[in-house]
């Protein structure tokens, strides 16, 4: 007898239990980033509802099982830093974004949030706004793009971007469910759209000020993985999931500061572009793994080896929107980050490059 798949949840059965009274207890889902840029979680029972992350206790986990510590000294601590309503459990239950810390009181080597927040606080007077466009690809249980012929390929790119209709879009149900889950959680999700490659989608987080962008994007990623679980699908944020004449996936990063938003802010935008160009190689180091396969100078990307910026140019490293050029103020779009890049590292190094670093910090390091 063939094995039965246990990938898809039995939602009807589950709902009987989800409706049970929790007797005043609250479930807190602690979320952290592991040693391979993935998401991990565990659940803690609280005795009462909380309104602020500062009310929550520190917790710990086995870092030797997540690539964040050795087995001889395996405890890694997770400190709450933001909370959100839980769209899966509802009620007073919450999602908790955390930072990882070592037993000696220092940030874990994969804790990029801590450094990013220090930079955001140091440059808070510039009022940095960020908006990230998270592209991703939906795969079936066998790891092939959903809706594609088994072992084969669909028709060439063209009809799929922002497409409507059977054969043009795949898995819209997952995308819509994720959108609603993000809204319930209070995330600053500003939109969704189907992308150029079939089964490739995008959601946008922002504008958010400072460190909040990274928190919202990581929680949105967590929600995407969780929603996909229930549909028996896989999510990949690899920058080039399908080789050949298919678009890769990126994490285009929109940046605006108080100086850029003022009248005649184009000078600040152009000054920022020049500074970003001076540290192009350092940025590429932290803009995601496997990005060279995506940034080939084709499929709406710049070459990974060259820096450029221009108005309305999607083949440039940095694009200045046409509307901003016409109005003389606004924002810039850094098109270099890969879809699997860490938003804390992206936004942190952008702040470091434009406004200057801090003693003891260097966000351009590929690894700590």
SSE order and pairing:
Elements: H1 11-18, E1 26-33, E2 39-46, E3 59-62, E4 75-85, E5 94-101, H2 112-122, E6 129-139, H3 172-184, E7 189-194, E8 200-209, H4 212-230, E9 234-236, E10 251-256, H5 258-261, H6 266-278, H7 280-285, H8 291-294, E11 309-311, E12 318-320, H9 322-327, E13 332-334, H10 343-355
Parallel strand pairs: 1-5, 11-12
Antiparallel strand pairs: 1-2, 3-4, 4-5, 6-8, 6-9, 6-10, 7-8, 10-13, 12-13
Helix pairs in contact: 2-10, 3-4
Report the sheet with the most strands, covering strand number, pairing sense and barrel closure. Answer: 8 strands, mixed
Given helix and strand content, the structural type is alpha+beta
Mean pLDDT: 95
Poorly predicted parts: 1-5
Percent of sequence in beta strands: 15-25%
What series of H and E elements makes up the topology? HEEEEEHEHEEHEEHHHHEEHEH
Query: What is the helix content?
Result: 25-40%
How many strands appear in the DSSP assignment? 13
Q: State the distance separating the first and last CA atoms.
A: 50 Å
- Specify the number of helices: 10
Globally, the shape reads: globular
**What is Rg?**
21 Å
Describe the structure.
- 26% of the residues lie in helices and 23% in strands.
- The chain is an alpha+beta fold and 368 residues long.
- Strands 6, 7, 8, 9, 10, 11, 12 and 13 form an eight-stranded mixed sheet that branches. A five-stranded mixed sheet has the order 2-1-5-4-3, with helices on one face.
- A hairpin with a 5-residue loop joins strand 7 and strand 8.
- The longest helix is centred in the middle third of the chain and has 19 residues, at 212-230.
- The chain is globular and about 60 Å long.
């Amino acid at each position: 007898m063939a094995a039965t798949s246990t990938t898809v949840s039995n939602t009807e059965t589950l709902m009987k239990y989800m409706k049970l009274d929790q007797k005043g207890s609250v479930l807190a889902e602690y979320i952290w980033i592991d040693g391979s840029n993935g998401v991990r979680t565990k659940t803690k029972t609280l005795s009462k509802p909380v309104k602020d992350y500062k009310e929550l206790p520190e917790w710990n986990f086995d870092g030797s099982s997540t690539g964040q510590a050795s087995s001889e000294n395996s405890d890694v601590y997770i400190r709450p830093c933001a909370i959100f309503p839980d769209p899966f459990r509802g009620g007073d239950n919450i999602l908790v974004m955390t930072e990882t810390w070592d037993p000696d009181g220092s940030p874990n080597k994969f804790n990029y949030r801590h450094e990013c927040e220090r930079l955001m606080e140091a440059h808070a007077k510039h009022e940095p706004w960020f908006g990230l466009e998270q592209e991703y690809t939906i795969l079936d249980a066998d790891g092939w793009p959903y809706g594609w012929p088994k072992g084969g390929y669909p028709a060439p790119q063209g009809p799929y971007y922002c497409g409507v209709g059977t054969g043009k879009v795949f898995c819209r149900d997952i995308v819509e469910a994720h959108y609603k889950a993000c809204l319930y959680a209070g995330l600053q999700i500003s939109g969704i759209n189907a992308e150029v490659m079939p089964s490739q989608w995008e959601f946008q987080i922002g504008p958010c000020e400072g460190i909040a962008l990274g928190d919202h994007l990581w929680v949105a990623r967590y929600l995407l993985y969780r929603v996909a679980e229930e549909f028996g699908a896989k999510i990949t944020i690899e920058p080039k999931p399908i080789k050949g004449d298919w678009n890769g996936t990126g994490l285009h990063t929109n940046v605006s500061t108080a100086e850029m938003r003022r009248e005649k802010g184009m000078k600040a935008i152009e000054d920022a572009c020049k500074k970003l160009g001076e540290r192009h190689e350092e940025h590429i180091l932290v803009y995601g793994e496997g990005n060279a396969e995506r940034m080939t100078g084709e499929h709406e990307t710049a070459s990974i080896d060259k820096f450029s910026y221009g108005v309305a140019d999607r083949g440039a490293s940095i694009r200045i929107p046409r509307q901003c050029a016409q109005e003389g103020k606004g924002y810039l779009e850094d098109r270099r980050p890969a879809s699997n890049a860490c938003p804390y590292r992206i936004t942190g190094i952008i702040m470091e490059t434009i406004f200057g670093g801090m003693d003891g910090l260097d966000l351009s390091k590929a690894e700590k």
